[in-house]
């Protein structure tokens, strides 16, 4: 597998839409990540805090690290000093902890609200109603070290492309509804909609994604022995 060729092909595909490529590097060794880095990748996504910290310590410091997995509150402190974007904010309590840790390091931490757009109960995220309640919650106004910059969502794992289109379309409509809402608090603005992975990123691009999280199409299948 030629990682550099895979990266180049994806970048060419994404270029017309100006969609950002997040290389999902979970379970892959630093040597493999460096192949992608040398090919021009600067945004890497991890779903486990310990693995992200270990790679951050070993790799170039111009890398933008994205936390794409479910984040436990007690792990926020480990990535607060350096994380570029947390894609998976799914509760107000998590936002409060991110704010607390951001204050300790004197840095505003950028986040995406994870929206539950699939019918799969196993996936995390806010419902539409919960997101609209959240933006009206006075708690948000006191979170000076959190900046919500958009939404993230995961479509159903299915071969039914019409279903995936519908779920991504829904997320983009929700994003637009928030983006043009005049009542958003200062801590929330809509700039990014992170949707699409190796199996469905082309559909996500069609539906307006600004970030795709791609692992298998760059690095091959995950190493589950790690």
Quick tags:
TIM Barrel, 226 residues, globular, alpha/beta
Task: Provide the structure class.
Answer: alpha/beta
Helix content: 25-40%
Number of domains: 1
Major pleated sheet: 8 strands, parallel
List the total number of helices: 9
- Topology-level CATH name: TIM Barrel
**Oligomeric category:** single chain
Query: On the 0-100 scale, what is the average pLDDT?
Result: 94
**CATH architecture heading:** Alpha-Beta Barrel
Low-confidence blocks of residues: none
> Order of SSEs, N→C?
HEHEHEHEHEHEHEHEH
Strand order of the largest sheet: 7-6-5-4-3-2-1-8
Roughly how many Å apart are the termini? 20 Å
Relative strand content: 15-25%
- What is the radius of gyration? 17 Å
- DSSP strand tally: 8
Morphology call: globular
Reading off the top of the CATH hierarchy, the class is best stated as Alpha Beta
CATH homologous superfamily heading: Alanine racemase
What does this structure look like?
The chain is built from nine helices and eight strands. It is an alpha/beta fold. An eight-stranded parallel sheet has the order 7-6-5-4-3-2-1-8. The longest helix is centred in the C-terminal third of the chain and has 19 residues, at 161-179. The model has no long low-confidence stretch (mean pLDDT 94).
Secondary structure topology:
Blueprint: H1 3-14, E1 20-24, H2 30-38, E2 43-46, H3 49-58, E3 64-67, H4 76-79, E4 85-89, H5 92-104, E5 109-115, H6 128-135, E6 146-153, H7 161-179, E7 188-194, H8 201-206, E8 211-214, H9 216-219
Question: What's a concise summary of this model?
Answer:
The protein is of the alpha/beta class and 226 residues long. The chain has nine helices and eight strands. The chain is globular and about 50 Å long.
